[in-house]
Amino acid sequence: MEKAEFERVIRQIPIGACIIDVNCVITFANPAFSGGLTARNDHLIGENLLTVFSEQARFLRRKIDSVFVLKNSSFSYWQQRPHVFPMRSTRPITGDESQMYQNVQFMPITACDGEVSHVCIVVTDVTAEASYFMQQTDLKNELESEHQQLKKLHQELKIAQRQMLQSEKMASIGQLAAGVAHEINNPIGFVRSNLETLKDYSQKLMKTNETQKKIILKQAEPRFIALLEDVYEKNGIAFINEDLPELLNESLDGTERVRKIVSGLRDFAIQDDENWAEVNLCAEIDSALVVLENEIKYKAKTSVSLPDEAITFWAKPSAIRQLLFNIIVNALYAMQPMGLLSISCAYNESKDVLLTITDTGSGISPEDLVRIFDPFFTTKDIGQGTGLGLSEVYATVQEHHGQVNVSSELGKGSCFEFTFKKQK
Ligand SMILES: Nc1ncnc2c1ncn2[C@@H]1O[C@H](COP(=O)(O)OP(=O)(O)OP(=O)(O)O)[C@@H](O)[C@H]1O
Ligand SMILES: [Mg+2]
User: Fold this and answer.
1) Residue 125 Cα to chain centre, angstroms
2) Residue limits of the Histidine kinase domain (predicted)?
3) Which residues line ligand 1 (CB under 6 A)?
4) Considering only Cβ atoms within 10 Å of each terminal Cβ, which end of the chain, N or C, has fewer?
5) Of the candidates 112, 140, 93, 107, which has an alpha carbon nearest to the alpha carbon of residue 28?
6) What CA–CA distance (Å, rounded) separates 259 from 264?
């Protein structure tokens, strides 16, 4: 290709090209380069590149030096440095943006001796690509933030649904419990009282029988004595005498257990008419710890953090006392042989009352965690626990329009957090 023809091509291509010598003096600039500049400059040839583009001088100097020294091309991409040369964009990116986004390549031009004599600077307009890329990035960020919002919403919805299910479940179980408690209360009452009478009767009968036997043994003819002993033997009277009091005592114990369950059920179901009062939570915690001192002594160290000010709220004193008992007793049971029981209470920023009871006990598995507030849910052995403790706690929280949150990890411990409104 002829030199003139080649020059014509260079002048016409829509890529900015400019050549400089070792002193950074501009020896060539095609129209795409000089014409694209925002500040028109017709006298680029013979000018020093670093003076013309003084704002970018340090950067240009570094790039050009690296080409002369390393004899390799050097690049500048729009993402790192979008506007090396102040040129008009071919396609505005935003309303106010008029600068061209550009990739710039610094290429070595070697002379016959193999040394780099000039550097050719090629400026490619990537405004369209950059625009597309940035739009996509904005879109991605928007989507990402929407996704995060949706995730948060979903989480909140899940919690609300769980709470709704729990309170619905509790409401229907509460009705059932009230009914069952009422139905069982009467029969268990008369069974117990009849058993007491039976115990009394049986003691009297046994005494009478004993006396009769003694008289007969002393005074009757031998054939009657033999007859009597035969009847005693055949009917196992000696065993009955031993077993009868035990049977009656066991039955009485059984009715006592049923009575306790029924009373627990009633506590859970019936919101009695006890008066509401200003309850001082710190004082209640203190007195619970005093009452449970003996239990605590062998099972846990305690760390109690109560503020100097009194933490008071409107509540049913005995229900709150019972709640503290149930939670502390559960915690002690879970910490065998020794653990740390931490109790704290405070006001939060919205002046609600916060009560936190933490133990380093056995922890609760995720499957059990959703069931602990259900009446009769217990992991204790038969006869050891009724499983009504936490359902009472839940009923108290509901009645006080409070909230309870439990977090637990198997083998590490559990944390019960309560929030109560200051006023009813
Ligand atoms: N702090 C705790 N650590 C580990 N498990 C707990 C804790 N609190 C409660 N649980 C679990 O929840 C179950 C139900 O507790 P809840 O107080 O209702 O009944 P219980 O303690 O088993 O019986 P009761 O209270 O009648 O003696 C317990 O059996 C236990 O499995
Ligand atoms: Mg319990």
Assistant:
1) 51
2) 179-424
3) 326, 330-331, 334, 359, 361-362, 364, 368, 372, 377-380, 385-391, 414
4) N
5) 107
6) 9
- Whether domain 277-420 has CATH 3.30.565.10: yes
One of 3.30.450.20, 3.40.50.2000, 3.40.640.10, 3.40.50.300 is the CATH number of 3-125, namely 3.30.450.20
Count the neighbouring beta carbons within 10 Å of the beta carbon of residue 422.
15
- Tens-place pLDDT, residues 176-216: 777 888 888 889 989 999 999 999 999 999 999 999 999 99
**DSSP string of 272-334?**
--PPPEEEEHHHHHHHHHHHTHHHHHTTEEEEEE--SS--EEEE-HHHHHHHHHHHHHHHHHH
Helix 389-399 vs helix 317-334: crossing angle, to nearest 10 = 140
Structure token pair of residue 298: 């062998």
List CB contacts of 421: < 8 A, sequence separation 6 or more: 313, 314, 352, 353, 400, 401, 402
Give residue 294's pLDDT: 83
On average, the pLDDT of the chain sits at 89
Return the pLDDT at 250. Answer: 94
State the Cα torsion 293-296-297-302 to the nearest 10°: -100
Residue 364 and residue 231: Cα distance in Å, rounded?
59
Which one of the ligands is nearest to 357 CA?
Answer: 1
Instruction: Write the pLDDT tens digit of every residue in 385-411.
Output: 888 899 889 989 998 999 999 999 999
Backbone φ, ψ for residue 356 (5° rounding): -125, 125
